[in-house]
Structure formats: structure tokens, C-alpha cells
Amino acid sequence: MAEDIKDDVGVNDMMTGDGSSQGGAGIFDAYIVQAPWLPPVYKGLKSLSEFISMDDKYINYYDINQASRAAVSFDGSVRALPLDADYIALGWRQDVFEKYASQYEEMYGEPLKVPDTIEELVDVSEKLNGKFDYNNDGIADWGFCLTPQTNYFQAFLAPILQTHLHACDIVDGKKVCDGLHTGQNIFFDVDTFEPLIHNEGYRHAVELYWRFIRASNCQAQTAAGEKCDRKTAFKTGRCAGVLSMPGTMTNLLKEGGKYAPPPEVRMDAEVLSEGGYWGRRKIFPGSRMVMDWNKPGRPLVECNDEICPLSRNSINYAPFFAEGGESYALNGQQSKPAATAAMWDLFTWFATLPVGEVPLAGTYRKSQLEPEAIDALAEKWDNRVMADDLNAVLQEYFKDKDEGGNPVQDLFIIGFPDYN
């Protein structure tokens, strides 16, 4: 799809002085895009800033979460309208955690708890792997499951490398981090453009991720160079939990979901009390170890209030927004105003729809976390626990910078598909 956009819009260096393209076919009036596709073509897309300003009573642009807004802004203008958000979260099996809690504690001398840090995530996954039979097929099962894609490794890297995206100051006795950009990210040094791979933090993430894979559904396939997938693994009932993006996560955890384990390979009827639910969702774990950007060599150090000003309980949280989610863009070369107006009217209508009714989209607005919106989602899913879990995740992920948000963006540069 990224190449198709280039073919139709034309790439930036093919733009003439008046902004028209010499290289794009110009067949389509509008596009469904993801943010990493935009850097090489954004000059050929129509700026939406004026449209948004004109129709903001419908668009309500600043209601959209800050990570999605930032992903589509270039040269001071908005080049696509976000109607979705893609981020990585943690799914976990409550039936597994309750069923084996006492055996786990007897075995390891510590309680079985849902991980708060990536270090705990790896440790728990290793200790569950090969010890218990979740689906009663006579075979010991795995720890947490995943598909070993680049973005899942980057979710491990995010809370180690990015502690605060904006400079902090004390306001009315409270630390607020909404100042100038610090330059922190997980890809490149913003001064030298050297890749951020030759440091202790990156090494720590690699080591943890490799241990995690070796305790997962991918332990045999990855070592053999074979394909491995969380979707096929999770439905077998052999996973204690899963890492996933939001749309797929819902299909993994929802009763009757496309990738959900059926009741016969679960234990919820046996161990969960009334009102409990087997498939739970949680924010992606943070890290107690972070990179110190202020010291030479950027060493790996323990998180504290000075280095991690947004931390909680000495844990730095940094949710990774992979790929940016679906957004909608207009062809900047369209010569028929009526066609542009018609497509913008469609975008505007999409922006007014309730969560779950926008094609390809999930929850992406802060207003979609209001109690009445979560009640509607619970009714739509027929699942109060799942709706409340999603709300808890996104209340954290959708924080603006003045609320203590620390979202980590994907790599929005020309050549992203090749680099990644």
C-alpha cells in the first residue's frame, strides 16, 4: 500500500515549484493511510488544517489522542485525519493466573502476579513456560505469546530509552513535563543521526526480548528460522498471555473472537468467580532500568524521580504507538473541488461516528473514554470487564503532555518500510 500511495501521489522530490506533482498518476481522490507511509509523499497530500478549523465542531481535532495527531503533522500542517490508533498492550489469562497461583508460589517462593515491568514479564513468562498444562492436553504449555515482529521488540525498547519527551519544570509545586522537546526517542540521536543501538539500554532490551521469545510460542520456530504467529497460538489455549495491537487484541480476548481460545481449552468455569472474565487487557509493562541521556555514553541506570520524572513506583512507562493507525488523506492534486468536498464530507461524517462504527478503526478519542461511551462499548461487546480494561489502558495511553503522557512514536521517515 505504501508503494501504491507513491505511485498515485508522487514523491516529494518530484513536486514542482507550485506544489503539483510530476510523478503521480493522480487517479484517486482520497486515501486510507498509515503514518509511516506519509513522509515521502506528504507534499502531494492536501493540507487539512483549514478544513479541520472550518469543521472542528464535527472533527473536534484535539479530542483525538496526541500520539495520533503528532503522527500526521508535517511542515506545520495536518496531512491526514486520524480515525484510529495503533499501540501495543498486554493481554493475560486470568483463569491461568488464578488456577496456578498456589502452585507457582510453592515452586518459586513468590506470588504469581501480572507483570508491571518488562523485567517481570520475562521472568514470569520463563517461570510459567513448560511447567503447567493450561488446556488439559497433557503437554506443558508456554509463557506469553507473540508474533516476533519489529514493533513488539520496540515495545520492550520504549520504556528503557524514552523517559520524557518534553522538558520538565515545577509548576505550583508539581513537576510538569510539557516544555521543549528533549530529543528522546528510540531510533536515532537527533544531533548526529547515529542509530541508538550502541548503548547498554538497547542491549538490555535485546537480552530481555530474546529471553521472552525463548519462553513463548516461538521458542522452537524462531530458533529454526520458521514463521511463528500469536493468532494461531493463542486460540489453542497454550498461552498465559499475549502481546498485541488493539484490533487483534480484541479478537484474541473476546468470547467467540476470531483468535480466542474456546471454552473447552480454558479453565474459567473452574476457577473464576461470578462476574470474572478469562481474557484481560493491561497497559504494556514499564521498566525499572532506563537509559540516562544526561551522562556520557548514556549508561543504563535505575529509574528515579530525576531521570524518570513521569515514573510511578520507580517504573518508567512509555507506550509504543506502532505504525500510527488508519488515517484519511486527500489528494492534493485533485482539480475538481466537488470531489475534494465530497471526500471531506465523508471524513467529517466518519469523525462523528461512535467507536466501533468507523471502518478499520478502534478507540482513538479521549471522549470515547467517557463513562457513557464505555457503557455503550460494554453493551456492544456484551462484556463489562473487557470495556473497563480497555478504558484503563487508554486513560494512560491517551494522556496529553500536560497530563504526564509519554507516548513513543514509530519511525516516521522516508524509507521506513526498508529500515524497519
Explain this structure.
This protein is an alpha+beta fold. Helices cover 33% and strands 11% of the residues. It is built from 16 helices and 15 strands. It has a 4-stranded mixed sheet with strand order 6-9-5-10. The mean pLDDT is 92.
List the defining traits of the structure above:
single chain; 420 residues; alpha+beta; 4-stranded mixed sheet; 3-stranded antiparallel sheet; 16 helices; globular
Describe the secondary structure blueprint for this structure.
Elements: H1 2-9, E1 30-34, H2 49-54, H3 56-59, H4 66-71, E2 73-74, E3 77-78, E4 81-82, E5 89-93, H5 94-99, H6 101-108, H7 118-128, E6 144-145, H8 150-161, E7 169-171, E8 174-176, H9 200-214, H10 230-234, E9 241-244, H11 246-253, H12 268-271, E10 279-282, E11 289-291, E12 300-302, E13 320-321, E14 326-330, H13 337-352, H14 371-381, H15 384-397, E15 408-409, H16 416-419
Parallel strand pairs: 6-9, 13-15
Antiparallel strand pairs: 1-14, 2-3, 4-14, 5-9, 5-10, 7-8, 11-12
Helix pairs in contact: 7-9, 8-9, 14-15
